[in-house]
Amino acid sequence: MNLVVVESPAKAKTINKYLGPDYTVLASYGHVRDLPSKDGSVLPDDDFAMSWEIDAKASKRLSEIAEVAKKSDRVILATDPDREGEAISWHVLEILTKKKVLKDTQVQRVTFNAITKNAVLEAMAAPRDLDMELVEAYLARRALDYLVGFNLSPVLWRKLPGARSAGRVQSVALRIVVDREMEIEKFKAQEYWSVEADLAADSPPFTTRLVKHEGKRVQRLDIGSEAMATAAREAINAGTFTIKAIEKKPVKRSPSPPFTTSTLQQEAARKLGFTAQRTMQAAQKLYEGVDDTGGLITYMRTDGLFVSPEGIAQARQVIGERFGPAYVPSEPRYYKTKAKNAQEAHEAIRPTNIARAPESLRLDSDLQRLYELIWKRMVASQMESARLDRTTVEVETADGQTGLRATGQVVAFDGFIAVYEEGRDDKPKDGADDEDDSTRLPTLKEGATAKVEAIRTEQHFTEPPPRYSEATLVKKLEELGIGRPSTYASILTTLRDREYVRSDKGRFYPEDKGRLVTAFLEQFFSKWVEYDFTAALETRLDEVSAGDLNWKVLLREFWTDFHAATSAAGELRTTAILDALNESLGAHIFPQKEDGADPRECPLCHQGQLSLKTSRFGAFIGCSRYPECKYTRPVAAPDAENGSAESGDRELGVDPQTNAPVSLKIGRFGPYVETTPPDADKPKRSSLPKGWSPASIDLDKALRLLALPREVGMHPEDGKPITAGLGRYGPFVQHAGTYANVSDIDEVFEVGLNRAVALLAEKRAGRPGGRGAAAAPLKDLGAHPETGEPIHVMAGRFGPYVKSGKINATLPKGTAPEDLTLEAALPLLAARAAAAPAKGKKAPAKKAAAPKKPAAKKAPAKKTATKKAAAAEE
Fold first, then answer.
1. Catalytic site residue from 146, 299, 371, 631
2. Which of 529, 446, 413 is nearest to 482 (CA)?
3. 126 and 15 belong to one structural domain
4. Which residue among 313, 432, 490, 580 has its CA within the 20 to 30 Å range from the CA of 744?
5. Is 299 an active-site residue?
6. Helix (H) or strand (E) holding 274
């Protein structure tokens, strides 16, 4: 009898089919134990002894594994082929040893890079022992993350209230985003002009650009004013031009290598609009296999570019069959990664069977699109180079004072381009990059006279460096050697979840909370947020995994300096910290005034100085003369567009139902809207939800907020009302004391009864709704022709419904979900959208009180609260 332990049940099911009746395959469901979230889990004074706690959900599964192990002759640990996989195997072995169920049982470790029958059987035939050097590298990494989180985070909480926590790698990633924002704020736009001319030389007109003026070479920024552009125009207009030279140059373009984890996340973000987390979730399912297909791709956490000979041979065969012999290079292509500290032994991400083309599969939308991307990239990586003919035409006046240039290229042989081209992160917006100019030029002859047909001058301004997208931030982390393939998705998710950054139109913007944390760390923990230090630490961890460094030596070296720094920061007075942050963030929170006045002068009393202050709700700006002067505002610099340039308060209008004025106010704890109906004893107020800036608030939005909570309908089970509102923890739906979060504030105004009942049912079942918790669609109908939003058929608690964006429409009785078409779904969505209340319409006034909040749990003692730290992450 043989017991095989893997991570996931899907993986267990597939492998069990390959191994036969002599094997029992059980899943651990990922990590089975971790360091408890309390002090003492890692003891530096006891040679970094670590105390592990078994996950409550894993106890039952471990008992089942132990029972089978007791009856088995052999236990085979078959978790993933990376550091985390080795750690899970080690944890399982440690637990089974403590349970004393391995008396005479042989324990072996196997790894396979793909879940296919051949790969699994080959791995079973070549078992090995646990790689304790990989395990020790995991232990060192886990201890470092714990020590940083549980020593640095309490300092943050005490000295910078409102901050969430800090992490060893996450804080460095946050600094990258903040540093880019500071670059953008300091950027000064430079004016420049482009000059183009359409010429004809016994040919159709072709476009040229100015490259020489008054005998001097013209670079992109050299024409810096309209006067200079006008002078260039006049010179072109007065000149007689001759085609001086025509250069035709053959150019080869080689394909990109197959995917690593980083490049897969980058390309999925560019081409599919996937977040890193969404990419990895889909890749995990493709790796484990869907239904009876087996594993569709090789292991998806890798930074190596190696492809097995079998994979290369498959790719070359597919290329020859589908595209012809001309597309198969004479020799296979081999790639070597340029990423720092890459594990070259790991295979790149590729289909397990390249002959299995994307169109032959029927997968869920995300899986289908990601598989197609991986398949195309792998096939293209082994194809012949593309060949292009690039032509450059130089045109000059007889005296050589004025010169124009035209460029163009023609694809002579498409090669790999027939399958795939890599996306670009930030394409130039002003046409300055002519390397990929695909303009076709007419047939021209050297020495021919060129006549000017038209001249165009256009003003431009240089642009600041772009904010990071998911793709470019992952690329930056990889370039710096920070983090590892398995950590990129969790790093980005952590930054969002802690509200240190926000994502708008696919770009990361640092929140003020994130800027404060970064400024604090740069002032008092500068060494530990330096890019080079963090990358060097990753290199040291790789030395541990290679057996070249003792893991406890690494921990001792790190802890000595880090402990001294946290102890010193703990002794700092809050006023000293705030003074340092005032200085560091001064340009951001106290911007210079146009009239040259002191930017820190209190706009209310004109005597005190503005400064950062803290409360249990976080940081804010206040007057130094408090309590005589009670001026406050949020940390963000005041925006004149918000209304009052001094306080941000402004009148929005009058409520048409009560004739009471409605105002936007900036309070100590942030902006809010307020109105006082004539018959009310006190004002009605509502804070602005996340994502709504004070500048965007008008009367319409304010009335919608003040109308909350709104009644969604009566629950079909007990007839009690379901309400939707905005609470301390965000937008929600509520019924009979149960609160369930909704995805965003817009859904509060639009959520229907069916969706609300489903969210509440998920919450009561222990599966809270919201981002990332949605069930898989029953059917993907494609994109909405007007909005571009995907349309899915979903399973609801009271029957199937069709969903697009935030519109949900119940299917008519008798309509089978699998039979619904896009044409049939569009009228249902249109009818539901028309029936929804208009966004600008104020909901009828209700006498019902706001929903009661659930009874608050007794707060823990203050000492315990300061000890608890956020879960460590990488």
1. 299
2. 529
3. yes
4. 490
5. yes
6. none
